């Protein structure tokens, strides 16, 4: 599956993407805010990430910025019985709205594939991610849970959010390329 937003091309990862992923995600400021990424993060970890099988109801994508290449990742995952969204952006592209743009596209896709509710969370010491979630319609559940961070090597406080898709406004514009 491929998606296009105003500025981004969301596409599956390929093995050729592993060096770019390894380079982008291996910054401590990025990897420490991801639950499943280990530290240190190198080419072997990136190869494992880009070759993960795709779940048709919970796909994940690399974010490709035309003229610049891969700048991050966004997608769905399973969190118990629920479907959650997650994303990361390479540091060079922080503060430019790419995470919000990608998250909005994920919500539209979630509606199309039949999800009615999504969950998400951010580590308490990463409030910028909470801002992204709020911008696209997630609301805090009032729960701060403990979630393991592979890179931190410990559990950390996670602020939980949810989004009832049926309560959200009409889908945003994006084009599906396949």
Task: Give me a quick take on this structure.
This protein has 178 residues and is α+β, with helices and mostly antiparallel strands. Helix content is 25%, strand content 34%. It has helices spanning 18-25, 28-31, 43-50, 98-112, 127-135, and strands at residues 3-4, 9-11, 60-65, 69-79, 82-89, 117-123, 139-149, 154-164, 175-176.
Question: How would you describe this protein?
Answer:
The protein has five helices and nine strands; from the N terminus they run E-E-H-H-H-E-E-E-H-E-H-E-E-E. With 178 residues, it is α+β, with helices and mostly antiparallel strands. The protein has a single domain, classed as Aminopeptidase. The strands form two sheets. Strands 5-4-3-2-1-9 form a six-stranded antiparallel beta sheet, with helices on both faces. It has a three-stranded antiparallel beta sheet with strand order 6-8-7, covered by helices on one side. Strand 1 (3-4) and strand 2 (9-11) form a beta hairpin. Helix 1 packs across helix 3 (43-50). It is globular, with a radius of gyration of 15 Å. Residues 174-178 have low confidence and may be disordered.
């Amino acid at each position: 599956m491929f998606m296009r937003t105003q500025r981004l091309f969301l596409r599956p990862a390929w093995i050729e993407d592993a060096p770019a992923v390894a380079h982008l995600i291996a910054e401590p400021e990025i990897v420490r805010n991801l639950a499943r990424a280990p530290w240190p993060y190198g080419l072997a970890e990136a190869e494992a990430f880009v070759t993960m099988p795709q779940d048709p109801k919970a796909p994940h994508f690399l974010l490709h910025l035309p003229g610049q290449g891969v700048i991050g990742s966004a997608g769905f995952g399973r969190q118990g019985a629920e479907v959650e969204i997650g994303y990361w952006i390479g540091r060079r592209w922080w503060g430019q709205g790419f995470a919000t743009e990608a998250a909005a596209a994920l919500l539209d896709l979630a509606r199309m594939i039949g999800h009615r509710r999504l969950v998400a969370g951010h580590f308490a010491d990463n409030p910028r991610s909470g801002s992204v979630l709020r911008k696209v319609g997630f609301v805090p559940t009032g729960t701060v849970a403990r979630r393991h961070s592979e890179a931190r090597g410990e559990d950390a406080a996670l602020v939980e959010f949810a989004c009832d898709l049926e309560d959200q406004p009409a889908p945003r514009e994006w084009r599906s390329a396949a």
